[in-house]
Amino acid sequence: MSGSLTVLVLASIATLVYHYLGYPAVLWILAKVAPRPTKTGSGQPRVSMLVAAYNEAAVIEDKLNNALDLDYPHLDIIVVSDGSTDGTEAIARRFEDRGVVVVEVSPRQGKGNALNRGAEQARGEILLVSDANAMVARDALTHLVRHFDDPSVGCVSGHVAPEPARDGSDISGSEGLYWRYEAFLKRAESRIASTTGVVGSLLALRRELFAPIPAGLINDDSFLMLHIMRQGFRVLYEPTAHCWRRSSRTMQDELRRRKRITSGRYQHMMRFSEWPWNSPFTVFFLFSHKYLRLLLPFFMIAALLGNLTVLFFSPVSWLMLLTLTGQAAFYALAAVGAILSRTPNRRWRPATLAYYITVGNLGLAYGFLQHVRGRHTVLWQKAAR
């Protein structure tokens, strides 16, 4: 039994190392030896921005002022208030005399339905999906739309960075490290074929490629990405198209966000017929980047419990002692990060990163439980801002 458990422990650790370190190394090599450049241009097609908002009274005015200040000549703005009860719609209607279109949905039906309603009103050649709490850089649209001069490009995702809370009571430090790691992966994937990491905070796509988001699907951005890939178009990441969104104020908020996203990702993973099988590279990216990540909590559990079992029931193995020491050091760092997270403006990067990774994987585990219990919902619960 000890031999089988040793193999399980080593295989689990190898999988974790592959996901966090090996896959980025493979991408780096592929991006060097097999790049597929795309053409960019200076065209300025009409863009319709879609903002799905639920109880966003605290940020919707800033969002619309930000959108109206963008340095782009042909921009329509459509706000869909999805059953808001805090005055979001009334605030948005103050901007109607400046060309903003406001659509009210009642009762609340979720972001996917809100985007469908907004797309029905859109007249632009390009749709731009942007969250209400995401503030966009003035030149972001120019950087995004230049890729659509290439007919092979169907969708472009921008770069999202966390905006720290004014009182320092957020997790932007560790979240920033995560986004930089993600940015490397997305940039490399884009150079080879298509990125599998798009964000609903800043996502541009050709209007003719938009498909109504089915009821019950949580991750609307992933649905659109996969739909466009299956049509044979590339999905790119543009690192110079910036936007900022407020970080989760607490790890509890981050855990809730991760749980919901994970449940939605399981939905997509199980819909095998909707994987982009026409692009082998993209399927490899999708599995290694997104779907393998869903299994990481189980590999972490297997590595730890298997390691303890081998050492408890079998003769002492220096290899197993070494792997257990490494795991213990990681979780000790995470515990220190948890303590520091309770004190504003006190961070130690290694500990905070270990804590963020641990909480992220807890979110993945909870998301799995939520999915198998059928408790996923398209109605999102906003984090405190």
Number of spatially distinct domains: 2
Low-confidence spans: none
Largest sheet: 8 strands, mixed
Strand content: 5-15%
Fraction of residues in H or I helices: 40-55%
- Average pLDDT, rounded to a whole number, is 90
Q: Report the C-alpha radius of gyration, rounded.
A: 22 Å
Taking the alpha carbons of the first and last residues, their distance comes to: 51 Å
Q: What is the CATH architecture assignment of the largest domain?
A: Alpha-Beta Complex
Number of helices: 11
Helical/strand content category: alpha/beta
Shape: globular
Q: Order of strands across the widest beta sheet? A: 3-2-1-4-7-6-8-5
Q: What do we call the CATH topology of the largest domain? A: Spore Coat Polysaccharide Biosynthesis Protein SpsA, Chain A
Superfamily at the CATH H level of the largest domain?
Spore Coat Polysaccharide Biosynthesis Protein SpsA, Chain A
CATH C-level class of the largest domain: Alpha Beta
Strand elements, count = 8
Topology as a string of helices (H) and strands (E):
HEHEHEHEEHEHEHEHHHH
